[in-house]
Amino acid sequence: MSEGQFPYLHGFSPIEQARLKRQAEFLEQTIYEDVDFSRCKKIIEVGCGVGAQSEILLRRHPKIKLTGVDLSEAQLEAATKTLSELSYAKGRFELSQGNAEDLEFESDEFDGAFLCWILEHVPSPETVLSEVRRVLRPGGHVMVTEVMNSSFFLEPYSPNVWKYWMAFNDHQYEIGGDPFIGAKLGNMLLSVGFKDIQTNLKVLHYDNRAPDRRKEMIDFWSELLLSGAEELVEASKVDQELVDEVRKELKAVSRDPNAVFHYTAMQARARI
User: Fold this and answer.
1) Listed residue (265, 28, 35) closest to 141, CA to CA
2) Phi and psi (nearest 5°) for 8?
3) Domains of the chain, earliest start first
4) In angstroms, rounded to a whole number, what is the distance separating the alpha carbons of residues 238 and 229?
5) pLDDT tens digits for 233-248?
6) φ and ψ at 37, to 5 degrees?
7) pTM to 2 decimal places
8) How far apart are CA 4 and CA 212, in angstroms?
């Protein structure tokens, strides 16, 4: 479940590392539509993981230098391998193992910060944001993208998926995370001293108007949900029979001619 201090429901296997890369690629258009570091030179990515987002940041912002921080040695090894193979990333990134709640950098060291799908997993997200604020220079800005798991909707009704989803979210709470943290980003950023806070909903909604994209989204979501199955079974939150039923329901939904998928994430931007 965890490597280091913070638990991670999805685990650190090579399968999960590959999934994280596919996830970043799949959601790039949605996540990066409003991400702009074009006037920044030094960016810190807190919770860089396998470098899936780092790769995109470096490609979309060819003038930045990126410092990635993560607690997991295994994730950083994967990130190093990924970024070292990219010609456009050469000489433009550094990776550091560290605790997001106690960043080992001087104050005012960066002019931009990027956090994506990280605060949902940490026990004290306010502490992380406070540390991000400390290492940002005056005028620097942060972009945070996070989950709002209560927004998930799936049609047709799939009772085993919903039972599994509730167990998924409950377990994340129990191990110190917050599956609904996206809705709270404005309050959190304000509480640690950020200003000019803006929040923007990132809506993923697919129905018969885009059947191909809908199936891709449901298949992607199925992979995300089931990536936590091993951890949930080990924690006795679900059993293998339920997991098997979830697989069947998700497969049926992906084939349904009238399926509907909806999920909304939250993206926040703020300055100091």
Assistant:
1) 35
2) -135, 110
3) 14-271 (3.40.50.150)
4) 8
5) 999 999 999 999 999 9
6) -110, 25
7) 0.93
8) 40
